[in-house]
């Protein structure tokens, strides 16, 4: 497969003025008729052939302006159709046959649990009909769906239904009109035996919108939260961005087999059932929050993505980065804002930093790709969102809103670029964002080395910041970025933020300084006492910030920093320093000794009377093994696991009574509600239980058993069950696990949890359990959720077992990738990720991982898997 380059972009030779589709649904042979109203681009010369994308399509008929084409007038290849001579403006009629049941890739038209559905982003529409399948070709669509009336009572597509009727042979049809010009990737069709939940929303201008959620009958009781989230999101987008919904109908459909979380098709969002269905008995607090944020994310795309879309797929972050930023702000406004930031940054620093340091690292706007499906990455989404967040902070909230208003009005109905977006922000704010644009083209995580010195005599604090971005594949040299660093100076005597004066200007006690050069010195004057700097507050830029903090400094910041995020981060840094020592001790076979300063810091947190329980729970949570690994020059999974377990047990032993008290204070019999206060109390109680279970004393075991048996809500049940299953008391865990599995055998989303919690056990026998569960009747490689729950969870969340020294974890993953490469290349390519990180491990493991990558490479590969494996072995 050949790469596609951004520099080769050319506008489309032919525009689609209108698209008319008709689907006659059949599992093995669906007929798709397409009538395209086409026009040559004024700048293209007469005689330019018409080239349409098309894959795995069986062409049955083709005509131009009603004239059937002769065989020498067109050619069909693996990638599409060429019509050699066409007029300037014309009608193209095609009819193709596709096989939804044979579609295991879940891209294009496929069936899931008997229901027909589509997934067209990024390039799935070309598996439905011949079309210029690129986002800069936008057209209004009319779609007629024909199906069996008895088995497919519900027939949906984008827009509004305009006609319906009966047909001979027990069939029926519905015709849908979508007046908004859209690219093909936003097309959707659903047909099935679905139940509907309906609600209404009145927009800010007083228009009535019907909201519909379609699910299988047994899931009717799991829709309330998604519907409520949708209405909250609609209100928020009106209030925060002035954006109103633009059709009379907004539909969401839940499907069981889906490659990602959800899809923002115009007026007809299709959701992975895991991203929409919730019930207190079956979904955890985290699942409730995830549903809320995904419902909002897809809804927000109606403007940031659909009304204004991407010119080409290199601009993917234009819609995804902006929309993630929007959904993050929405969740922050709806829940605990500091905790939302802590959770997002924890995830980002663990997973995106690892991606940016690995062989698949790429800029937020890549300049080439082989398979765009491989670029739905943390870099495009999350780093893209961090860049938009920096922009918003740089220009200020008001200018940001003016900039987004300008962007939406200037480019409504158009397909545009990242520059168009940034230009609007520059225009609205008057800021020069030229250097800032480098964030989009430069891969890798920038590192800042900071040094500070307090000059008592002159009451000055000198801060020197040096930036460097490490080389990444294809980018050896890096340029200096414009990095906003939010900071405060916390007085060591007063414990308060000191006033900041820079170059004679008073900046208040919390300010942003702008690092634009490789190295810059900032001299703060009138600094009345020796400070500890609090740098990168709120994670003001997606960088690694190094400062030679001593442990006392970190304990001080943890207790006194006015910035909640940095207070939490100081605790994490302190724990990391202690963990470093313990990892070294484990590797050297030396006895591990707990740093008393960490115990005292945790005691301080417990006694500090922090009101926000959700923040307190975060402050009591140790860095994850994955994040610890991210900090190590060479990853030693066993030493990391041993060190973290030791710290957890030491804290549990020293603070046992505090954790017991915390547990008791936060238990509640109140009926479950996914409300921030309840979620916070549950998270605090469950953090306490984790510590108690780390030492498995009688009290902890009893509480975990009782919590499981009380069966109050899935958050508590799952947490207790996980702690039991991950513990050493099989006599207690096994019956609980069995009972749970039997109870929920008919609920796929709960069974996913049942699979995951077993394969993430740290015990050494888990590989056999993984193999055993792969043979379980409920396991299927064709269901992406199940693959993620079992294989994905094992490979990504069980480092000690996945990285077994005998390489059997790697072998299992490679075997699965090889099988999935044939069934579902998108999922196969994603699954390889942990093997691509081989360079972070010892030589023996490196060789074992590379051998598995070579074994995959020897297969006949999909472009998706080929691209990832080639990069990993380059
Ligand atoms: N924009 C959507 C992307 C998506 C997708 C991409 C590739 C393959 C399958 C997919 N399903 C959904 C989701 C989103 O970001 O909102
Ligand atoms: Zn998105």
Automatic annotation (TrEMBL):
Residues covered by the Peptidase M1 membrane alanine aminopeptidase domain: 226-438
Cofactor(s) demanded: Zn(2+)
Domain Peptidase M1 alanyl aminopeptidase Ig-like fold: 444-547
Domain Aminopeptidase N-like N-terminal: 103-186
Every Peptidase M1 alanyl aminopeptidase C-terminal domain range: 552-874
Catalyzed reactions: Release of an N-terminal amino acid, Xaa-|-Yaa- from a peptide, amide or arylamide. Xaa is preferably Ala, but may be most amino acids including Pro (slow action). When a terminal hydrophobic residue is followed by a prolyl residue, the two may be released as an intact Xaa-Pro dipeptide
Listed EC numbers: 3.4.11.2
Keywords, ordered alphabetically: Aminopeptidase, Hydrolase, Metal-binding, Metalloprotease, Protease, Zinc
InterPro entries hit by this protein: Aminopeptidase_N-like_N, Aminopeptidase_N-like_N_sf, PepN_Ig-like_sf, Peptidase_M1, Peptidase_M1_dom, Peptidase_M1_pepN, Peptidase_M1_pepN_C, Peptidase_M1_pepN_C_sf
Coiled-coil regions, chain positions: none
A GO MF term: alanyl aminopeptidase activity
Family recorded in the similarity comment: Belongs to the peptidase M1 family.
Protein name: Aminopeptidase N
């Amino acid at each position: 497969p050949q790469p596609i380059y951004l520099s080769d972009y050319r506008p489309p030779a032919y525009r689609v003025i209108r698209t008319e589709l008709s689907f006659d649904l059949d599992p093995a042979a669906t007929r798709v008729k397409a009538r395209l109203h086409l026009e040559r681009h004024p700048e293209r010369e007469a005689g330019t052939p018409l080239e349409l994308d098309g894959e795995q399509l069986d062409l049955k008929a083709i005509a131009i302006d009603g004239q059937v084409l002769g065989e020498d007038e067109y050619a069909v290849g693996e990638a599409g159709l060429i019509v050699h001579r066409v007029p300037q403006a014309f009608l193209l009629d095609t009819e193709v046959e596709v096989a939804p049941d044979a579609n295991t890739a879940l891209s294009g038209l496929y069936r899931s649990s008997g229901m027909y559905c589509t997934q067209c982003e990024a390039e799935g529409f070309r598996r439905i009909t011949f079309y210029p399948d690129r986002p800069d070709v936008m057209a209004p669509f009319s779609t007629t769906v024909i199906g069996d009336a008895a088995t497919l009572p519900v027939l949906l597509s984008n827009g509004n239904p305009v006609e319906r009727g009966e047909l001979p042979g027990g069939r029926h049809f519905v015709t849908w009109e979508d007046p908004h010009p859209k690219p093909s990737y936003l097309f959707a069709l659903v047909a099935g035996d679905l139940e509907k939940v309906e609600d209404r929303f009145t927009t800010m201008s007083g228009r009535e919108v019907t909201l519909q959620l379609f699910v299988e009958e047994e899931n009717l009781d799991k829709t309330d939260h998604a519907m409520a989230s949708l209405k909250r999101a609609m209100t928020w987008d009106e209030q925060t961005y002035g954006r109103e919904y633009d059709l009379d109908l907004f539909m969401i459909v839940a499907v069981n087999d889906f490659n990602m979380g959800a899809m923002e098709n115009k007026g007809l969002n299709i959701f992975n059932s895991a991203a929409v269905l919730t019930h207190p008995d079956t979904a955890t607090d985290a699942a409730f929050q995830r549903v809320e944020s995904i419902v909002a994310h897809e809804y927000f795309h109606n403007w940031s993505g659909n009304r204004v879309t991407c010119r080409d797929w290199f601009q993917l972050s234009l819609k995804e980065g902006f929309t993630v930023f929007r959904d993050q702000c929405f969740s922050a406004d709806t829940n605990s804002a500091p905790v939302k930031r802590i959770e997002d940054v924890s995830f980002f620093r663990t997973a995106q930093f690892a991606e940016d340091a690995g062989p698949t690292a790429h800029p937020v706007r890549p300049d080439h790709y082989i398979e765009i499906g491989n670029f739905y990455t943390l870099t495009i989404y999350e780093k893209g969102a961090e860049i938009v967040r920096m922009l918003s902070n740089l220009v200020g909230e008001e200018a940001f809103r003016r900039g987004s208003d300008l962007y939406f009005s200037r480019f409504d109905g158009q397909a545009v670029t990242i520059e168009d977006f940034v230009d609007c922000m520059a225009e609205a704010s008057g800021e020069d964002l030229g250097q800032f644009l480098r964030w989009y083209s430069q891969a890798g995580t920038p590192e800042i080395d900071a040094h500070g010195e307090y000059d008592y005599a002159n009451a000055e604090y000198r801060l020197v910041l040096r930036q460097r971005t490490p080389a990444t594949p294809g980018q050896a040299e890096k340029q200096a970025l414009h990095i906003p660093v939010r900071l405060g100076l916390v007085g060591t005597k007063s414990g308060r933020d000191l006033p900041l004066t820079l170059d004679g200007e008073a900046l208040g006690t919390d300010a942003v300084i702008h690092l634009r050069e490789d190295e810059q010195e900032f001299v703060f004057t009138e600094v009345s006492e020796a400070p500890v700097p609090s740098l990168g507050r709120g994670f003001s830029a997606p960088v690694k910030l190094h400062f030679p903090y001593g442990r006392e400094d970190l304990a001080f910041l943890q207790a006194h920093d006015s910035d909640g995020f940095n207070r939490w981060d100081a605790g994490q840094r302190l724990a990391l320093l202690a963990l470093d020592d313990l990892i070294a001790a484990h590797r050297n076979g030396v006895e591990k000794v707990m740093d008393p300063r960490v115990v005292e810091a945790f005691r301080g947190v417990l006694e500090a009377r922090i009101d926000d329980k959700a923040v307190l729970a975060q402050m009591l949570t140790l860095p994850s093994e994955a994040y610890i690994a991210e900090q190590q020059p060479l990853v030693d999974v066993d030493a990391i696991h041993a060190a973290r377990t030791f710290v957890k047990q030491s804290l549990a032993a020293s603070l046992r009574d505090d954790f017991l008290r915390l547990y008791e204070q936060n238990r509640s019999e109140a009926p479950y509600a996914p409300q921030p206060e309840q979620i916070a109390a549950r998270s605090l109680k469950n953090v306490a239980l984790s510590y108690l279970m780390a030492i498995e004393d009688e009290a902890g075991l009893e509480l975990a058993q009782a919590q499981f048996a009380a069966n109050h809500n899935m958050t508590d049940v799952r947490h207790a069950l996980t702690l039991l299953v991950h513990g050493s008391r099989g006599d207690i865990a096994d019956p609980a696990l069995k009972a749970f599995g039997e109870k929920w055998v008919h609920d796929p989303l709960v069974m996913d949890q049942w699979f995951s919690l077993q394969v993430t056990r740290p015990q050494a026998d888990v590989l056999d359990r993984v193999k055993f569960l792969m043979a379980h009747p409920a396991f299927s490689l064709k269901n992406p959720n199940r693959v993620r729950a079992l294989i994905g969870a094992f490979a990504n969340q069980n480092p000690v077992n996945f990285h077994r020294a005998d390489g059997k974890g790697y072998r299992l993953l490679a075997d699965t990738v090889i099988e999935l490469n044939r069934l579902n290349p998108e999922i196969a390519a994603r699954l390889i990720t942990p093997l691509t990180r081989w360079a972070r491990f010892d030589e023996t493991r490196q060789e074992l991982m590379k051998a598995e990558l070579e074994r995959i490479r020897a297969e006949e590969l999909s472009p998706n898997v080929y691209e990832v494996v080639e990069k990993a072995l380059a």
